[in-house]
Structures are given as structure tokens and as C-alpha cells.
Amino acid sequence: MDWPRDRYIAPDLLNVSANMRALLDVIMLALQLYVWILIASAVLSWLVAFNVVNTRNEVVRSIGSFVYAVTEPALRPIRRFMPNLGGVDISPIILLLIIFFIQRVIDLYVYPAVI
Hints:
Layout: H1 11-49, H2 58-81, H3 91-113
Helix pairs in contact: 1-2, 1-3, 2-3
């Protein structure tokens, strides 16, 4: 007969486990939100480069400055180590791969370790 795990675990440990799961869920949500901001940054840079949107527009300028301020601190160290590829910036792709790796580690190794 399969007994519930709650019966054998102290109630204080269950609260810690629930708090840890909540914290991990917030971290996963923040990482997923950052992925979407990186994608928006790439799309916006392409739209500006191909002159589809005008950076003199105040809304576009404010969105662009927000996205730049949020993504640049994470992309700058990656760009420092990347070789010059002749105008092609693959640092967002590398950052996306790092974020996907972190999410995978949390899913496979951290979630199962939390009771």
C-alpha cells in the first residue's frame, strides 16, 4: 500500500519545501520573462536596422532604451569574450543557451531534490 509522503515528513519541512518550490517557480518565471525580453530586443534591433520603425518616435525610443538597459548588462560580458564575426552579434543566442541550460538544471536536478 502506498502511503502519502506527508505522513512521514515533519510539517516544518513541508513549509520549507513549499517555500523553496515557490522561490524556484519565481526564478523560472523571471528567466522565461528575460528570454522574451531578449527576443524583443533582437526583433527591435532588426526593425531599427531595416528602417521599419523610427527611433525618433518617443514610444520606440523608450521601449528601445528599456530593452537596452535590461539586456546590455548580461550581454556585455559575453560580447567581451566573443570574436569579431563581422557585424553578426550572436551574444543573445549564447545568453539564451545559458538561460535554457539553467532552466534545464533547475527542472532536472533542483526540483526533484526539493521534497
